[in-house]
């Protein structure tokens, strides 16, 4: 018997707190995702971060939430065809994002690279699960997506901290 794919809670958390500094709900502040406090960026880097955010960076993060939500929608109730399509779209968006300019802040960019890696792994597991109807693949998909969302939240927190709207 197939267990439900549980990713809605992670998406809900990301939508509510993760993008507070990037066009999401500005009054909500997440607990820091990083254990040690990274160095504050220089004023030049803060200016570059604002430029990155305002010239499409914020939309990139919002678009990822849309793709992740499409995967979530196809996950409950499970729609294997919908999952194949949603995961293919997510994988393509990851590939596109990997080719874009890096985030000018090293700490945020490192978290972003980690998020993209986990989203890619999630999309692969999702595609495999949608083809084979494998619960193990669905579990891996959900786990990788959750980790990716945590890293994406760290990016948003960092941007919101140093380049609030």
**Which segments are poorly predicted (pLDDT under 50) over 5 or more consecutive residues?**
12-34
Number of helices: 5
Largest sheet: none
State the separation between the terminal residues, measured CA to CA. Answer: 47 Å
Shape: elongated
Quaternary structure classification: single chain
Helix content: over 70%
What structural class should be given to the helix and strand makeup? Answer: mainly alpha
Indicate the mean pLDDT: 80
Q: Name the beta content range.
A: under 5%
Order of helices and strands: HHHHH
Computed Rg: 16 Å
Q: How many beta-strand segments? A: 0
Helix and strand layout, with pairings?
Layout: H1 8-18, H2 43-75, H3 80-99, H4 106-132, H5 135-162
Helix pairs in contact: 1-2, 1-5, 2-3, 2-5, 3-4, 4-5
Short summary of the structure?
By secondary structure, this protein is mainly α.
Structural notes for this entry:
- This protein has 165 residues and is mostly helical.
- Helix content is 72%, strand content 0%.
- It has five helices and no strands.
- The termini are far apart.
Summary keywords:
165 residues, mainly alpha, 72% helix, elongated
